[in-house]
Specification:
Layout: H1 9-21, H2 23-34, E1 43-48, E2 53-58, E3 61-62, H3 64-68, H4 73-76, E4 80-85, E5 94-97, H5 98-114, E6 122-126, H6 131-143, E7 146-149, H7 156-166, E8 170-174, E9 177-179, E10 182-184, H8 186-194, E11 202-206, E12 220-222, H9 223-227, E13 239-240, E14 244-250, E15 258-263, H10 265-279, E16 286-289, H11 296-308, E17 312-316, H12 327-335, E18 339-342, H13 344-351, E19 368-372, H14 378-388, E20 395-398, E21 432-435, E22 447-453, E23 463-464, H15 468-476, E24 483-491, E25 497-502, E26 506-509, E27 512-515, H16 516-523, E28 529-539, E29 543-552, H17 561-573, E30 581-585, H18 598-605, H19 623-629
Parallel strand pairs: 4-17, 6-7, 6-8, 7-14, 8-11, 11-12, 16-17, 16-18, 18-19, 19-20, 29-30
Antiparallel strand pairs: 1-2, 3-13, 4-5, 9-10, 14-15, 15-23, 21-22, 22-24, 24-25, 26-27, 28-29
Helix pairs in contact: 1-2, 5-6, 7-8, 10-11, 13-14
Bound molecules: 5'-O-[(S)-butoxy(hydroxy)phosphoryl]adenosine.
5'-O-[(S)-butoxy(hydroxy)phosphoryl]adenosine binds at residues 250, 295-297, 372-375, 397-402, 423, 485-487, 499, 502, 508, 513.
Length: 634
């Protein structure tokens, strides 16, 4: 076992201190021995906060797939790398060994090359959770193409925006995605998107749902036909440490999503380091993260982190409540899962179904539980601990972001203590600061403020694709010499952190990070809408839900208005962005400078009507009473 994986609370503290006192030696020593490098680095890291320029392991040559696959072949070629559990419980699961994975990734890489793909090309993956998605991600990495995975729940408009932003040359998709009894017509959605995407040259289609689709001659090709005669051997592309590995989009507070760009070496080092420390993975354990590969959690903790650590990682195609709410627990028993990592929203939703789902479920193989995506409330935490972990499993509450690439604050399973609703302590290498609104560091342990990071770490995003200025503005200008997370946090007397939620215009709905501005832009497209303001409010199952306040152009009642708004948002952004409540109002509260005061609307949406705070700067305070009066109750 590596000395860089903490084994006790004391060991964690020593490792942490070492990582802070001499970050350069810490990361150099860890990285030197734990990975296979084609060439070593010239410098461990360099940074310039004001330009938001960061580099890790500059000068090194590496390919992440050698580290995730090739180097395990000799000792562990027959070990299961990916355990695929299909949507339909009656369909056979697949055990894909490291040797199989090696061959499949090589064939896929050769297929991409035969289409003309090369290092630096952007390739969009719009796919369900099937093995071909994992093969495609790794095949891109193998040949140095930059993957841009778009979650298969996104609409055609969201897909075309993302493809165009990165000017992707190729798209890999499937006929349809299976989710419960439903089929998502992915190819059909992609066809609509591609009408707006001139950069796409070729489309590869995986046969999965067997739904009817149309294939455009010369552009669309079946995966099976292309892959058939590909060789099982493929040279890796030699990557510079700082060459981009992938782009992944996350919502921003202006309408346009941000294409976060991650690096090759730093991302590899930190996803491996954090995976092993947080989950304390031991050889032969079966690890399951229920996220979709369309989100960062799937990138870092289904694919890259676990595979680089030589783990067996489970990939589940389906949904938690199909064919019944016991599906997760059935899979845990079936595959003897030891480590289970999911989202608070899934826990809350399953908990609401009562205890029947747990009948005849043993759950006896579980050793470690985890959560990610949003703050977990006390009730959900206790249910998880008691009914799933049977009081025997620590729960790692992992705080991080698409931008951070890997887990930043979390307890380490059985090494540092858990504390319900707290993400607890920063990982070694992660220097957390709480700053007040004027940027002053809050030095006392017991404090609450803006959550910031004061030293670069290996897996931080390097830029926003095509817009470095936005990268600087969003993360590095609010507080000098700090990365600003956009979250607020509290710190208790023992130094444990509890995330209090976003301090900006992002709402986390069922673990999905939604930009309110993006939703407002869509609502404003409705011909009767003058203006809208979208805020989040606490919701029992979803964590947060969307409340839209809409000012109409005229005061006439419009029939089916809410349904139209819902349909519009669903169609353009995807059903997860649909507002839970739509309230029309005579006017929106505005400051004299014309800025909508969302802070007040947030309070009204949360039914916190008495403490609206200072309304003295409002131009039109009278509108508040009307909005309060017509508030939509649950
Ligand atoms: C935002 C990032 C990290 C992968 C999934 C979401 C919230 C995330 C926690 C947690 C409290 C959390 C934060 C963060 N968040 N994990 N354990 N406790 N809040 O990635 O879509 O980039 O969203 O999710 O608000 O900023 P993302």
């Amino acid at each position: 076992m590596s000395r860089f994986v903490a084994k006790s609370l004391d060991g964690y503290k020593k490792l942490y201190d070492e990582s802070i006192n001499s970050p350069e030696t810490f990361w150099a020593e860890f990285s030197k021995n734990e990975f296979s490098w084609i060439r070593h680095w010239d410098s461990v890291f360099t940074f310039d906060w004001s330009k938001a320029k960061f580099s890790w392991f500059a000068g090194a040559k590496v390919n992440i797939t050698q580290n995730c696959i090739d180097r395990h072949l000799e000792k562990n070629g027959q070990k299961t790398a990916i355990l695929f559990e299909p949507d339909d419980p009656n369909e056979k699961s697949q055990h894909i060994s490291y040797q199989n994975l090696f061959e499949e990734v090589n064939k896929t890489a050769n297929m991409l090359k035969s289409m003309g793909a090369k290092k630096g090309d952007r390739i969009c993956l719009y796919m369900p959770m099937i093995p071909e998605l994992a093969f495609s991600v790794l095949a891109c990495a193998k040949i140095g193409a930059i993957h841009s995975v778009v979650f298969a729940g996104f609409s055609s408009k969201s897909l075309s925006n993302r493809i165009n932003d990165a000017k992707c040359r190729f798209l890999i998709t499937s006929d349809g995605g299976l989710r419960g009894e439903k089929i998502t017509p992915l190819k059909k959605i992609a066809d609509q998107a591609l009408e707006l995407c001139p950069s796409i040259e070729k489309v590869v289609v995986v046969r999965r749902a067997k739904n009817e689709i149309t294939m455009k001659a010369g552009r669309d090709f079946w995966w099976d036909a292309l892959i058939e005669n590909q060789s099982k051997e493929c040279q890796v592309e030699i990557m510079d440490a700082e060459d981009p590995l992938f782009i992944l989009y996350t919502s921003g507070s202006t309408g346009k999503p941000k294409g976060m760009v991650h690096s090759s070496a730093g991302y590899m080092v930190y996803t491996n380091f954090s995976f092993r420390n947080v989950f304390q993975y031991k050889p032969n354990q079966i690890y399951w993260c229920t996220a979709d590969i369309g989100w960062i959690t799937g990138h870092s903790y289904i694919i890259y982190g676990p595979l680089s650590a030589g783990a067996t990682t489970v990939m589940f195609e389906g949904v938690p409540n199909y064919p019944n709410p016991g599906r997760f627990w059935e899979i845990i028993d079936k595959h003897k899962i030891n480590i289970f990592y999911t989202a608070p929203t899934a826990i809350r939703s399953l908990a609401s179904h009562g205890q029947n789902q747990l009948k005849n479920k043993r759950l006896s193989t579980l050793e470690v539980l985890g959560t990610v995506g949003e703050p977990i409330n006390e009730e959900a935490w206790q249910w998880y601990f008691e009914h799933i972990g049977k009081h025997n499993c620590p729960i790692v509450d992992t705080w991080w972001q698409t931008e951070t690439g890997g887990i930043m604050i979390s307890n380490l399973a059985n090494v540092t203590p858990h504390k319900a609703t707290f993400a607890t302590l920063p990982l070694p290498g992660i220097q957390v600061n709480l700053l007040d609104k004027d940027g002053r560091e809050l030095k006392e342990t017991d404090a609450e403020g803006n959550l910031c990071i004061k030293h670069p770490w290996p897996s931080m995003a390097r830029t926003i694709y095509g817009d470095h200025q936005r990268f600087i503005n969003t993360y590095f200008s609010r507080f000098p010499k700090h990365y600003f997370t956009g979250d607020g946090a509290k710190r208790d007397a023992d130094g444990n952190y509890r995330i209090t939620g976003r301090v900006d215009d992002i709402v986390i709905v069922s673990g999905h990070n939604l930009g309110t501005a993006e939703i407002e832009n869509i609502i404003n497209q409705h011909p009767s809408v003058a203006e809208s303001a979208v805020v989040g409010y606490p919701h029992k199952k979803k964590g947060n839900a969307i409340y839209a306040f809409v000012q109409l152009k005229t005061q006439d009642q419009i029939q089916n208005f809410n349904a139209e708004i819902n349909a519009l948002v669903s169609k353009t952004l995807g059903p997860i962005c649909k507002p839970e409540k739509v309230q029309t109002c005579l006017a929106l509260p505005k400051t004299r400078s014309g800025k909508i005061m969302r802070r007040i609307l947030r309070k009204i949406a949360s039914n916190d009507l008495e403490n609206l705070g200072d309304v003295s700067t409002l131009l039109n305070p009278a509108c508040i009473d009307e909005i309060k009066e017509n508030r939509i109750n649950d």
